[in-house]
Design brief:
Elements: H1 19-24, H2 33-42, H3 44-49, H4 54-60, H5 63-69, H6 73-91, E1 108-111, H7 127-142, E2 146-151, E3 159-162, E4 168-171, E5 183-184, E6 194-199, E7 202-213, E8 216-222, H8 231-234, H9 245-265, E9 272-276, H10 283-295, H11 299-307, E10 310-313, E11 324-325, H12 327-338, H13 345-350, E12 363-364, H14 365-371, E13 375-378, H15 381-390, E14 406-407, H16 414-417, H17 420-429, H18 441-444, H19 452-480, H20 485-491, E15 500-505, H21 521-528, E16 535-540, H22 548-562, E17 570-573, H23 578-587, E18 590-593, H24 604-611, E19 615-619, H25 623-630, E20 635-638, H26 647-670, H27 680-696, H28 699-742, E21 747-753, E22 764-772, E23 781-790, E24 796-803, E25 805-811, E26 822-834, E27 841-849, E28 864-865
Parallel strand pairs: 1-2, 1-9, 2-8, 9-10, 10-13, 13-14, 15-16, 15-18, 16-17, 18-19, 19-20
Antiparallel strand pairs: 3-4, 5-7, 6-7, 7-8, 11-12, 21-22, 22-26, 23-24, 23-27, 25-26, 27-28
């Protein structure tokens, strides 16, 4: 029986403690322990049974208990202190308040398919979502006007369980949004705010929710509402990455197009859109549609306006992670979006293909996002190099290293991930306001002033808490499986609070090689059976529901964990989530990371562990490639960055290298203790890891880089392109069309130089080039010398660019008397090359497009090189 009316019931708090609800709805308590401890103080057991959900918890506390709490002087003193800190956080100036030369109305919309803010809002699956949550938290700290945009999933990601054979199963509990820290947006007359998106099957409506994150917020969409009569429409927001390919494109259209429309309905139109992965890339079509309808622009003019302020971050170097849809499917959805507007659908489909003329090629969301954004970045230096290689075909004839994909290395939100125990040390020895000074390298150097014994005892407490939590979690898991009393009793004795604790926890994709350590079980058995130097291992992680090879990895680990010789020293923690992650990164001694290089884009879990004093043992991949090469004292590297074609051979080599590191370096250093039982060399490495991770690999630094390099320039560009009837956007579209029409006529006709065969270091010579441009002009192009060393394959490497200056029109060939005439559309260019070092060098000459409104001169298909005959 369905209800004829519904209503919501919210917690009724005594007026004296009424602001508890405000704090509970802010998620700020996630990174302020004093605020979090208010809820622990209310009822620690209820905090656990409510799933760390303060809204649900407040609704479950009896009214008599609330009244008693409101009269508790000790609680009220802490409550008042927390409210004062919260008010100060909201009121006091932040970093962005001091930034100059930024458009007054700048607003950034940060689109992501998942957001990992807290385990009480399970709408995330893994690292991408946790990064998104950390990004929004950092924007709150910095005062950046950033709004997160996502989907509010009815079931979210799955809860994991293992059967008796260790095979992963999934179940999907429903989220009750009305008992979560989310708020339904309403119209003035009190009805839920709805937006509509046109699909080929008809319009779909979504209601809009708001999630407060400190000073920032998320806007979330939910289609499971009565207004949608078709079940397939209501199911769009059921699960993260759920359903078939049709549902996936419906989700991604809703995120991009619906997300923008939700911001419009809230009068929060963004100036800059940040696409965190390609899932939201259809928002670029919505921005084009807006430009065409509101400003009377052509498709190409509206595209220039839309792309001017789009930022795209690519996250995966794994081909399967870059989504591709059938072109016909994309065209159906694009036609539904644009309706009767005149749009070149063939051009749209070409923007999603690495080879636009190959009509058999599918529509790639990553390719489309790259083509529709002014700024594109990877998430570590190595990932930047990998991404440029992956997508080099988008810029044919352009040297791979010049493909316009930069990198901003990820970071983690330190106040969320640094343990409460370490926070106390930071406040005592670094700065009571350390959260405000995260990029301050000098402050982080004060970690050296923390007494070794104090830091070590603090870390030991964290390890003890991890072991205690792991035992409780394992017992709960066994009870759910209806294990025998003997098995449950044995779980109470697993792990040793004082033993070297090595953790592997991440998504269980096969390329991450979660079972690499298990290739040599005899060697593993010898490691853990040493009574003088005990070692133990904790594993955790989920495989995608359709990833059977990933599930096989979990089953292999689970099988080993049940063997008698390993049972006490190696465990798998089921249902990896943010709570488990916190215990692991805060209590681990060693963080183990074994991806198949170079398939790890960044890997933020290692940063979180290092910030808490764990030492990384890792393949040189993602963030660790740059961190360890510059700061080798923060841990150990497995290998030296080799890439193997034979994966089985690679696994054997790197498994052996891992055991060598553990046996010869890690274990001896951990157990090399002084009279006070403190491993001094180990603690020095802990301090180094903390200094490097906290000062460099934090979201404060990361988000400021996004703001300074991308958001601010894009906001200014948006303002300029939108002014005066979008005049500059129209001009750029017209210029781009002219370039494409005439670019094939450009040729480098002749090169003249006074270069000798050999010159000395520091000497110079001139190079002149005759370039035919007609009907283009020197103002339309950038003519460059591309000069560098010559390698064994006779290729230029480590090249640098030298701009050539126009030296006037060229003269046509004369009649032998020396009296030539001006050649139509041909110009002379000149530049000087200086020999900066000895060796074998060479150069070529190229022509690129040039326009004041181009972010990069590398435009797909617009590059001309001097021929070999020149």
């Amino acid at each position: 029986m369905k209800p004829i009316r519904t209503y919501n019931v919210r917690p009724k708090l005594p007026e004296r403690i009424g602001r508890l609800l405000e704090i509970a709805q802010s998620f700020w308590y996630e990174w302020d322990y004093d605020a979090l401890s208010l809820f622990l103080r209310l009822d620690r057991d209820l905090w656990e049974t409510s799933g760390h959900n303060p809204i649900r918890m407040l609704g479950l506390i009896g009214q008599d208990n609330l009244e008693a709490i409101a009269a508790d002087d000790g609680f009220l003193a802490q409550y008042d202190r927390v409210c004062e800190v919260w008010d100060g956080y909201l009121r006091e100036p932040a970093w962005f308040d001091g930034v100059e030369n930024v458009p007054d109305e700048m607003r950034v919309a940060y689109f992501s398919f998942e957001f990992g803010l807290s385990e009480c809002l399970p709408i995330y699956s893994g690292g991408l979502g946790v990064l998104s949550g950390d990004h929004v938290k950092a924007c709150s700290d910095l005062g950046l006007p950033v709004i997160g945009v996502g989907l509010l999933y009815q079931q979210g990601y799955f809860r994991q369980y293992l059967n008796n054979d260790g095979w992963q199963g999934e179940h999907y509990p429903n989220n009750d949004f009305y008992t979560m820290p989310v708020r339904l947006e309403r119209t003035r007359d009190g009805r839920p705010l709805l937006i509509q998106v046109e699909y080929p099957s008809g319009p779909v409506k979504a209601q809009v929710w708001r999630v407060k994150v400190g000073r920032a917020c998320l806007i979330m969409l939910d289609t499971n509402i009565p207004s949608n009569s078709r079940q397939e429409d209501r199911a769009i927001t059921d699960q993260v990455y759920g359903g078939n390919i049709e549902n996936r494109i419906r989700q991604e259209v809703l995120l991009g197009v619906g997300g923008l429309r939700a911001l419009e309905a809230l009068k929060l139109r963004p100036t800059v859109c940040h696409l965190n992965e390609g899932h939201s890339a259809f928002l670029t079509l919505e921005r084009i549609r807006q430009g065409m309808e509101e400003n009377g622009l052509t498709f190409e003019e509206a595209r220039e306006t839309a792309c001017a302020a789009n930022v795209f971050t690519t996250h995966t170097p794994v081909a399967a992670g870059n989504e591709i849809f059938p072109a016909a499917l994309v065209e159906r959805y694009a036609r539904a979006l644009f309706g009767a507007l005149e749009v070149p659908y063939g051009a749209i489909l070409g923007l999603g293909r690495a080879h636009p003329q190959q009509h058999s090629e599918g529509f790639g969301m990553t390719v489309f996002a790259i083509n529709m954004s002014s700024h594109v970045n990877a998430v570590s230096r190595l990932h930047g190099r990998v991404s440029r290689e992956m997508w080099k075909d988008l810029w044919p004839q352009t040297p791979v290293e010049e493909a316009p994909i930069s990198s901003i290395t990820n970071g983690v939100h330190l106040p969320t991930w640094v343990s409460h125990d370490l926070n106390d040390l930071f406040e005592r020895y670094l700065d009571p306001e350390w959260r405000r000074e995260m990029p301050n390298t000098a402050m982080w150097r004060r970690i050296q002033s923390i007494p070794n014994e104090e830091l070590w005892r603090t870390h030991e407490r964290r390890r003890e808490k991890l072991v205690s939590f792991a035992r409780r979690h394992l017992i709960e898991t066994l009870m759910k499986r209806r294990a025998t009393p003997r098995e449950i009793a044995a779980a109470e004795e697993v792990l040793d609070p004082a033993a070297l604790t090595i953790v592997f926890a991440r998504r269980m994709a096969t390329y991450k090689r979660g079972a690499l350590l298990l290739r040599d079980l005899e060697r593993l058995a010898r490691l853990i059976s040493d009574p003088e130097r005990p070692v133990q291992f904790l594993f955790s992680g989920k495989a995608h529901p359709h990833d059977n090879p990933g599930k096989d990895v979990i089953r292999e680990i689970a099988h080993v964990a049940t063997q008698d010789r390993f049972r006490q020293h190696l465990i798998f923690l089921e249902d990896y989530d943010l709570q488990i992650a916190r215990y692991l990164v805060q209590g681990a001694d060693v963080w183990l990371n074994t991806p198949r290089r170079p398939l790890e884009a960044s890997g933020t879990s290692g940063m979180k562990a290092a910030a808490n004093g764990a030492l990384n043992v890792s393949i040189l991949d993602g963030w660790y490639d740059e961190a360890h090469r510059e700061h080798p004292e923060i841990g150990w590297a497995i290998g030296a960055g080799e890439v193997y074609d034979d994966h089985d051979y690679q696994d054997r080599v790197e498994c052996a290298a891992l055991y060598n590191i553990l046996e010869q370096e890690v274990i001896p250093m951990f157990y090399n203790r002084g009279r006070d039982d403190v491993p001094r060399e180990w603690v020095q490495r802990m301090k180094a890891a903390m200094m490097v991770s906290c000062s460099i690999f934090n979201t404060c630094r990361m988000t400021r880089h996004y703001a300074e390099r991308f958001y601010f320039p894009a906001a200014r560009r948006h303002e300029e392109f939108a002014a005066d009837g979008c005049r500059r956007a129209k001009q750029l579209a017209q210029w781009r069309a002219r370039m494409k029409e005439h670019w094939g006529k450009i040729r480098v006709e002749n090169i003249v130089t006074d270069q000798p065969n050999e010159i000395g270091v520091g000497e110079r010579f001139n190079v002149r080039a005759r370039v035919h441009l007609a009907p283009l002009t020197p103002d339309d192009v950038l003519v460059e010398i591309y000069q560098g060393e010559i390698d064994a394959a006779n290729e230029l490497q480590n090249a640098r660019r030298i701009e050539m200056k126009c030296d006037g029109p060229a003269k046509a060939a004369g009649d032998g008397t020396g009296a030539g005439t001006v050649a139509d559309g041909t110009y002379n260019f000149i530049a000087t090359i200086e020999a900066g070092a000895s060796g074998h060098f060479g150069y070529s000459i190229r022509v690129l497009p040039k326009h004041k409104d181009l972010v990069s001169p590398f435009v797909p298909g617009l590059i001309v090189w001097a021929g070999a005959h020149s």
